[in-house]
């Protein structure tokens, strides 16, 4: 963890008595609580994406890293590094046991149905093609089982769709998510929707979707990323993920609107000044929003 990142995490904690963290990397005088609530800190497995793609990341050692390197209490998993082992009971039991051994709470599996060889997206829960939607529901079920096996509380889904209106995506998403919830609710696993751009970048749209389904096992995963709240990009540009945002939703308003439904928080950070401040997000403002809400879960921080 570089010096500016370390300052950044320290600054988050100093900005809020809601956060309690025990880490040798941070100042020991930062332990605190807010009205007896603790906003706990987890480490994102996605933080090690570059190491994974270089063949330098072993998922079975993630819990050990969370505890021994960062001394955090929570682990947020990502589907890609499972490498097809999401149905392997021996592998899943190993992950669960190691988390238990290190005193780690496994929180969420971020599910990306992505073929890492071709980088092609898998079936979408928000597709206008009913056959594809139904297959997407089936494709997510093993991840619900995996989450249950490693004692996570939730899986995160995506709602990708092309050439469809907000109303159309709303309609088909309600159908798909409701089917998925029939399966997950029996296992007490939550389904969480992250603002991942597109229609999900519109917090009011996400809230409306959640309220229409009205299931206690459905919630949100607010992400601080600016582009996560980009509702519409310039599709004429070749590099879509770096293309200009044509319809930017206010992310502070968006987080505020998503917080009442949150079952986790993703504190995305990408650039820092020399004082360890994230230059794209006012974290003190975000933490104040969290303090005013009823959220008591895990705030997932990146490692780099």
What does this structure look like?
- The structure is a single chain.
- With 304 residues, the chain is an alpha/beta fold.
- The protein has a single domain (3-301), classed as TIM Barrel (Alpha-Beta Barrel), CATH 3.20.20.
- It contains nine helices and twelve strands.
- The strands form three sheets. An eight-stranded parallel beta sheet has the order 8-7-6-3-2-1-12-11, covered by helices on one side.
- Helix 5 packs parallel to helix 6 (166-186), helix 6 packs across helix 7 and helix 7 packs parallel to helix 8.
- The longest helix is centred in the middle third of the chain and has 21 residues, at 166-186.
- It is globular, with a radius of gyration of 19 Å.
- Residues 1-10 and 12-36 have low confidence and may be disordered.
What's the domain count?
A: 1
What is the count of DSSP helices, taking H or I runs of 4+ residues?
Answer: 9
Range of helix content: 25-40%
Strand order of the largest sheet: 8-7-6-3-2-1-12-11
Question: How large is the share of residues in beta strands?
Answer: 15-25%
Judging from the principal axes of the Cα atoms, what is the shape? globular
Look at the helices and sheets and give the structural class.
alpha/beta
Order of helices and strands, N to C?
Answer: HEHHEHEEEHEHEHEEEHEHE
Give the CATH level 1 class. Alpha Beta
Distance between the termini: 6 Å
Q: So, the CATH homologous superfamily?
A: Divalent-metal-dependent TIM barrel enzymes
Stretches with pLDDT under 50, minimum 5 residues = 1-10, 12-36
Query: Residue-averaged pLDDT, rounded?
Result: 86
Rg from Cα: 19 Å
Query: Main β-sheet, in a few words?
Result: 8 strands, parallel
Write the CATH fold name: TIM Barrel
């Amino acid at each position: 963890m570089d010096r500016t990142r370390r300052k950044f995490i320290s600054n988050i904690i100093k900005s809020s008595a809601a956060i309690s963290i025990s880490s040798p990397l941070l100042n020991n005088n930062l332990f605190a609580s807010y009205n007896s609530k603790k906003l706990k800190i987890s480490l994102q497995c996605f933080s090690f994406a570059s190491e994974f793609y270089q063949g330098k990341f072993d998922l079975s050692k993630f819990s050990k890293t969370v505890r021994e390197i960062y001394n955090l209490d929570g682990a947020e998993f990502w589907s890609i590094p499972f490498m097809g082992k999401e149905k392997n009971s021996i592998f899943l039991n190993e992950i669960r046991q190691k988390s238990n051994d290190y005193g780690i709470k496994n929180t969420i599996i971020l599910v990306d149905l992505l073929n890492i060889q071709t980088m092609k997206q898998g079936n979408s829960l928000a597709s206008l093609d009913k056959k594809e939607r139904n297959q997407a529901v089936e494709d997510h079920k093993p991840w619900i089982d995996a989450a249950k096996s490693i004692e996570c509380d939730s899986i995160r889904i995506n709602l990708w769709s092309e050439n469809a209106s907000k109303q159309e995506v709303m309609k088909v998403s309600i159908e798909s998510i409701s089917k998925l919830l029939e399966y997950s609710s029996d296992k007490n696993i939550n389904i969480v929707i992250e603002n991942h751009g597109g229609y999900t970048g519109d917090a009011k749209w996400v809230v409306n979707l959640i309220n229409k389904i009205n299931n206690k096992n459905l919630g949100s995963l607010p992400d601080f990323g600016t582009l996560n709240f980009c509702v519409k990009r310039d599709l004429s540009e070749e590099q879509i993920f770096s293309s200009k945002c044509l319809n930017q939703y206010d992310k502070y308003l968006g987080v505020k609107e998503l917080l009442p439904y949150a079952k986790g928080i993703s504190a995305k950070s990408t650039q820092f000044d020399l004082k360890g401040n994230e230059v794209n997000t006012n974290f003190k403002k975000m933490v104040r929003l969290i303090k005013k809400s009823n959220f008591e879960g895990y705030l997932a921080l990146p490692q780099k």
